[in-house]
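Follow-up to my post from last week.
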Amino acid sequence: MGAIKQDTPKETAQKTIALLQLTRIGDIVQTVQMVKELREVNPEYRVVLIARKQFANPLSFLLKDLFDETILLDFDDLLNTQGTLNLAGVRKNIQTFVNRINSQNVSVLINLSFSKTSNYLASLINSEHKIGTRFDRNANIQVTDKWSQFVYSNIMTGPMCPFNLVDVFKLIVGVKATKKNIEKKEFKTKTKLVIHPFASQEKKMWKPSKWVEVVFKLLKNDDKLTISLVGSSAERNASEEITNSPLLKEFKNRINNLTGLTSIKELYDTFDDETLFVGHDSMVGHVAALKGVQTLTISLGTVRPHETTPYGDNNYNLSPRTKCFPCFPNDECAFKQCHADISYQTVVTSIKQLTKEGKVTEEFIVKENSTFHLNSANLYKSSFSDNGLLKINPVISNTSDVKDVMRAYYRLSWLYMLNEIEENLDYPEISQKVYAELLTLMNGLQHYFELADFGMKYSRYILEEISGETPNLSNIKAYSSKIDEIDGLHLVIKENFPLLAPLVDFSIILKGNLFGSNVVELTESSFYAYSDLANHSKIIYDLNEKTITEFKIKNNKINSIAQR
Amino acid sequence: MSNFSKEIVDALDSLKKSAADGKEHTNEEMEVLFLASLLEEENNGRN
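User reply:
Got it. Predicted complex:
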């Protein structure tokens, strides 16, 4: 009997992606949300998570089935040396830890933490490819992929990022943007309110007394409602300040203080269709959204609603219109005006409609609140774009400020420039004040475009000089110093037009991470960088011009009707 | 200052000197930098 020879297909080793996420629990939950989508689109990869033990362990119920392996960075273990604590012993522990990661044969290491510690760790790990920030052997930051350059230049430096962090992770990792199928659930009246009235910093949370007002009003207005306060054991005393308030005495049987009494898993398990979550920006909101629970976030201090709104459709975010909001963690602030700019009345009326109808409408919120309260806060609602990326839009029309409009422009331009993704944008509804601000910006954009154009020109001159028969070194030096001058002038634009800071900061990172190992390659890379920057500014310019024109047309129509 | 802290400070001083001489950091030096950064974060109680 003749044997049939069969070609055995070559076995290809499964590629391993290692995600470095050394930041807090909330960031790990957002990473989980991204990886869930990655798993759907690319089930063929092994995915390994590298996280801090103290932040990953409370989420082990979410991590165990999602990741092929979770490698924990345990600070106490690293410092556990035989005998007296000594540097050689700790270094040995670090090597053991890094070797454990290296034994995974990592194909792509993706640093999602953007912290100094994670940058050093990323430089120690062996991987075929590295995405995200890391240090080179001269301790200079290296960031070569475009979306990490975006994070480094936009999120780390200012509040103009138009994307939710889960989407930023998706874009860094390369999870394909696809339309989301949103499951239409039958609406159930919410009778259970879960409140997390705390956050990681004082700047980001109201004082307990303001929460007492909220709880009092809600329980007084709705006798079916029960409220659970949740949080960590460190927050127990503050939660008792709320529950022990004399004002709430008569409602004690409808307040359940679970602060410090539940694990994250227990909390996750209690969330259901009848729950509404309300709180400041913290891990609990992200956990609620992960379970599909509707959320209302009160963003204060350093919190950026566009980046941090819990990832899900139909979530709401209240943020103050205070001039200095959002601030930076190190900014001194004694008065906390942003805390006063969101009134408890606005929160209470939003919750009132959310519990009854699952939405907050402009009509309702305007009817139930005084202009005085509404003028100092923005209310946003989340939804998914056709590309499956989350966006938040103002609920009350004509309340977009100039930053909102610029964020909308940037959202379109970044997606197109970095991923060739096209999104639609309705003309933003703007006020006369925003119109004037946008008009001023046209000059800055024009200057920026001209500088990028000059950058292309001088990069080309260098290339032409090098490719000539007898390259003139002094000419090359002169062109090169022109390029330095151009880069310096970009900073002047940033100073005069702060809304263009995202473009300028990105150009600095892009120019600092040019590709190539010789003058020709680096100059070519410089030419393409300037070309990208010119195109980017042109997109923003066109969008701005169209918005301004549309506003003028609308206003002329209104004026001519008024004159009739 | 504990012996361990002194060891780290000395190691950081030494790697600063070698960097000033234009030398690239070795793996050992990167480990020290990682450790120093981790200690700083843990002491600050953030991240």
